[in-house]
Fold this protein.
Amino acid sequence: MDKRLLLLGLLRQHRMHGYELAAFIDGQMNTCTDMKKATAYFLLDKMTNEGWVTNTTEREGNRPERRVFALTEKGEEAYQKLLRENLKEYDPAIFTGDVGVAFLDDLEPSEARALLAERRKELVARLERASAAPRHNGSIQLLVEHQMRHLQSEISWLDEVLAKLTFALPSNAMASQEMRDEK
């Protein structure tokens, strides 16, 4: 996900202070992005230097001062360009967490099933969090729904893998150990 596009898009809706942006991302979009507060502030400072956003220091009552960010005309142009680039491109999903699947046959099926069952549990928890999140108005909800569809698909695929392991996929664990012993 283009994190600059996310920040610009949120600021396009209305001006926000950094904590408000980070809280929205963490609370409402945490299943769709892994952006941390430090990254958001870093990018906001960078986009301020590029003239895409402005920031003013404001204080409400006895609260500490905070920087409030707003989109500039140059930021609107950057937003429109990033939006169009993002929508036309396909960024393939690379499942780096699946590298171990390539070597499942190096484990006993019972151990592989147990480990993948833990993964499934985490996927189900993520799907439940996404499902419990408040619905968004407009197209932000599409992003959440896409993430939910992905999680559902992952759970379905994992169920198929677990079913195959239940029927005792041949294990190369012993053969692999024998090869190591011969060396």
Summary: The chain has a mean pLDDT of 85. Residues 96-182 form one domain. DSSP finds seven helices and three strands in the chain. The first strand starts at residue 16 and ends at 17.
